[in-house]
Amino acid sequence: MGGMVTKVSSNGEYSFTKPNRDSITLLSGLGVEGDVHAGVTVKHRSRVAQDPTQANLRQVHFIHEELFAEVLAEGFEVRAGQLGENITTSGIDLLSLPVGTLLHLGDEAVVEVTGLRNPCLQIDNFQDGLLKQVVGRDETGNVFRKAGIMSIVTTGGTVRPGDPIRIELPAEPHRPLERV
């Protein structure tokens, strides 16, 4: 059970989008080397404003490239890195993974899935109306979030486009992802 890394992205400055790279280096317990969101404690501005001492459960952000085709059908053109993700994947239903899932990336790196990205208004600043495509309520009134998942780095290593991703599920009972 697995998929593939299609793109990797990072940015050393606060910016909504992240440029694609040839590779990124994951640092155990920190995140993506040189990325503005790397660190032991939270780096996302809204989280820092709430409590700058809270643990950084959002070290590495993943988005499934299948989302891009989904929003394109609704008239929104999005490419890898443009929603601020570090790793774009294919072939994995990221949103259905349980908390604690380990993703083995390439030969070395391992991340632990912590939860769902909580999309913010910056998405509409990027493309007006896009936020409603990635967060909302389904027909039964349940909130859905489709803007990717967050993780922490348990084992560092280099990650490149084309690297395989192996999924290691945690022991049952599985806990569904919630926003982090």
Describe the fold and architecture.
The chain has 180 residues and is mainly beta. It has one domain: PK beta-barrel domain-like (M1 Pyruvate Kinase, Domain 3), CATH 2.40.33.20. It contains four helices and 13 strands. The chain has helices at residues 45-50, 66-72, 122-126, 131-134, and strands at residues 2-9, 20-21, 24-27, 31-32, 60-64, 87-90, 102-105, 109-116, 135-137, 143-145, 149-155, 157-159, 164-168. The protein has a seven-stranded mixed barrel with strand order 1-6-5-11-8-7-13. A three-stranded antiparallel β-sheet has the order 4-3-12, with no helix packed on it. It has a two-stranded antiparallel sheet with strand order 9-10. α2 links the parallel β5 (60-64) and β6 (87-90). The longest helix has 7 residues, at 66-72. The protein is globular and about 40 Å long. The protein starts with a strand and ends in a 12-residue tail after the last strand. InterPro entries: MoCF_Sase_C, MOSC_domain, Pyrv_Knase-like_insert_dom_sf. Residues 19-168 form the MOSC domain.
